[in-house]
Design goal:
This protein is an alpha+beta fold. The protein is about 25% helix and about 30% strand. The protein folds into two domains: about 90 residues, no CATH class; about 140 residues, no CATH class. α4 links the parallel β9 and β10. The radius of gyration is 21 Å and the shape is globular. The relative contact order is 0.13.
């Protein structure tokens, strides 16, 4: 119909799904089904479903409001046209120089390396390989150490305090924003967080530290660092 500017204000995570098409590693972000958009033709916080157009292969956003409660009438927007994103304008902190694509590629590479090493370990013990998932995000260091670690370790206050103290005392000063790659079993059981510096260019993507949630994660990180020169930074145990 024409060009139209909207503002994405949020998204809803989906439940984890096992890897498809034989791929042993899946990106958790690929499972996001809905985003919420402020559209001045409809209103704020409008739910759109993410679809792939079978003909053009373009990503399109389809108006997908949940059913209203009994007795509540809502504006019928079933005929509202689908949106095909052409440009994304994203505000970032001026010190953040790492691109999302580069962080995603690094996360995928690390996840495949860990999968290979873990599969060898499980095979030697007579177990089948476990498919893995990974997610990537940029987050303020203070929010990671505060809210994010609390969401993961909050049921064990003693361990949470130990991990926070280790990040402040063992790891050299980190950037205001960090790139976090979380790798885990596909059912969302975390194995390791890898914390990247975001103040350098995509050609140089250093790692500050890693937070291991399982003892096997520490072994895998040490093995890959020794045998393949993989960079994991300073290891912090969170188990």
């Amino acid at each position: 119909i024409g060009l139209h500017a909207v503002c994405a204000v949020g998204f809803r995570s989906s439940t984890p799904v096992p890897p498809q098409n034989g791929d042993p590693v899946v990106s958790q972000e690929s499972n996001i089904d809905h985003i919420y958009i402020h559209d001045d033709n409809i209103g704020p916080n409008v739910r759109f479903e993410i679809e792939s157009d079978a003909t053009s292969n373009f990503v399109r956003l389809k108006r997908s409001a949940p059913p209203p409660p009994p007795g509540v009438n809502r504006l019928n927007t079933a005929s509202y046209p689908n949106l095909i994103p052409r440009r994304l304008v994203v505000a970032v902190h001026e010190d953040l120089r790492t691109s999302p694509d580069q962080l995603h590629q690094c996360g995928m590479m690390k996840a495949h390396k860990i999968f290979s090493a873990l599969s060898g370990l499980l095979k030697s013990a007579g177990h089948d390989p476990l498919p893995l998932s990974f997610s990537t995000r940029f987050i303020k260091l203070s929010e990671y150490i505060g809210r994010e670690l609390n969401n993961t370790l909050g049921n064990n206050p003693k361990l949470l305090g130990k991990v926070r103290l280790a990040l402040w005392e063992k790891v050299p000063p980190m950037s205001l924003h960090i790139g976090v790659v979380r790798i885990g079993v596909w059912d969302a059981t975390p194995l390791i967080d890898i914390l990247f510096d975001t103040t350098d260019s995509d050609r140089n993507h250093p790692v500050f530290a890693n937070v291991c949630y399982q003892s096997v994660s520490t072994q895998l990180a040490q093995y890959l660092a020794t045998t393949e020169g993989e960079e994991f930074g300073i290891s912090v145990e969170a188990f």
